[in-house]
Design brief:
By secondary structure, the chain is α+β, with helices and mostly antiparallel strands. The chain folds into four domains: about 20-105, Arc Repressor Mutant, subunit A (Orthogonal Bundle); about 110-145, no CATH class; about 160-235, SH3 type barrels (Roll); about 260-335, Alpha-Beta Plaits, CATH 3.30.70. The chain has nine helices and 13 strands. The strands form four sheets. A five-stranded antiparallel beta sheet has the order 8-7-6-5-9, with helices on one face. The chain has a four-stranded antiparallel beta sheet with strand order 11-12-10-13, with helices on one face. It has a two-stranded antiparallel ribbon with strand order 1-3. This is WYL domain-containing protein. InterPro entries: CBASS_pafABC_assoc_protein (IPR051534), PafC-like (IPR028349), PafC_HTH (IPR043839), WCX_dom (IPR057727), WYL_dom (IPR026881).
């Protein structure tokens, strides 16, 4: 389509109150062009409302865009070196549609896979309590979808069972009410707890409630996926001393904790950093290290050993070794039971 010269419009009957400083004009153009590209097709009145400008000012900026570009090899502004719009739509329907972009298309774009990964991350963020009621994340996901070099793969972050529990706990935290629930502690015992919620935190994919436990009369940390039958009570949260502070660490040592001695490759020692190992000592040439962990119960070692199978060896106490050995034997027995009988398909 042949480029048209921007039409001359009648002089305005009243002065435009918007500033005409060159710096302001450039700032508006730098904001307006990406907006028009992102919208695809938008009316002058919509642009005016979005940027807080008069419609005449918007029309003037659009005419200026049509005279903007980058000079080609001849150092002259020829056809193809300037922005262009669909003039029939602009003149007849007061609608702006960019038909030619200069240099903008050369900017790097996310690949479809990169955009899909970012969208999945944003979906996870949208599930966080503090972000559940905002539209900014949804808008950003839509922009990533439109701006990718190819349509991103449709992804969805699976909802976990703890999500419903988190909503109940978040409601109690927001409204300042107590929350009660049945809790399966680290020793495998089921207890009923009444808690004044103080904070919700996440570590990796696990969510935790930190609050004042009326049963223990102290601050405790609860894993949300170990809660059942959560309920916001009709009782307001109790008043606590002004000097009640939550520790910086999520878990605190207890006098009931058990010291467990482990051995593992020295290079793998950072894998235990979340457990805050103590009294680490090199073995022999230093290729392996022995260290001590404090755990609430020997059954807590099951998850650790399973996640670091073949890397960690439990040395003592004997009870801890036996618990891990029984856990491994039970798992091996399930594989043996699944083996087909001789002579059977």
């Amino acid at each position: 389509m042949r480029r048209r010269t921007p039409p001359l419009r009648e002089a305005k009957t009243k002065p435009d109150t918007q500033p005409r400083v060159a710096g302001d004009q450039l700032t508006l153009l730098l904001s307006l062009v990406p907006y028009l590209i992102d919208q695809g097709r938008v009316t002058v009145s919509e642009v005016a409302v979005h940027f807080g400008l008069s419609p005449e000012r918007v029309r003037g900026l659009v005419n200026l865009i049509a005279l903007s570009g980058i000079p080609g090899e001849t150092r002259q502004y020829l056809h193809g070196d300037l922005f262009d719009i669909l003039w029939d739509e602009f003149e007849t329907n007061d609608r702006i549609v960019l038909t030619h972009q200069v240099a903008i298309d050369d900017s790097p774009r996310f690949s479809a896979r990169e955009a899909a990964a970012l969208i999945a991350g944003l979906q996870y963020l949208s599930a966080l309590p503090n972000n559940a009621d905002t539209d900014a994340i949804a808008s950003l996901m839509a922009k990533l979808t439109r701006g990718a070099s190819a349509p991103p793969t449709q992804v969805a972050v699976a909802q976990r069972d703890a999500d419903a529990t988190r909503e109940v706990v978040q409601t109690a935290l927001t409204t300042g009410m107590q929350v009660e629930f049945d809790y399966l502690n680290a020793r495998g015992c089921q207890e009923h707890r009444l808690v004044d919620p103080l904070r919700i935190e996440s570590v990796d994919s696990d969510w935790y409630l930190r609050g004042w436990c009326h049963l223990r009369e102290a601050v405790r940390t609860f894993r949300l996926d170990r809660m059942s039958n959560p309920l916001v009570t009709a009782a307001p949260r109790s008043t606590h001393p002004a000097d009640l502070l939550l520790p910086d660490t999520l878990f605190q040592a207890s006098t009931d904790d058990i010291d467990v001695r482990l051995e593992l490759a020295t290079a793998a020692l950072p894998l235990l950093s979340d457990y805050r190992p103590e009294r680490s000592e090199p073995v022999g040439s230093g290729v392996r290290t022995r260290t001590t962990l404090r755990v609430a119960h020997t059954h807590a070692l099951k998850r650790l050993v399973t996640g670091l199978a073949g890397i960690v060896t439990v040395l003592e106490p004997a009870e801890a070794r036996q618990v891990v050995a029984d856990w491994a034997a039970a798992g091996l027995a399930q594989y043996a039971a699944a083996e087909p009988m001789p002579g059977k398909d």
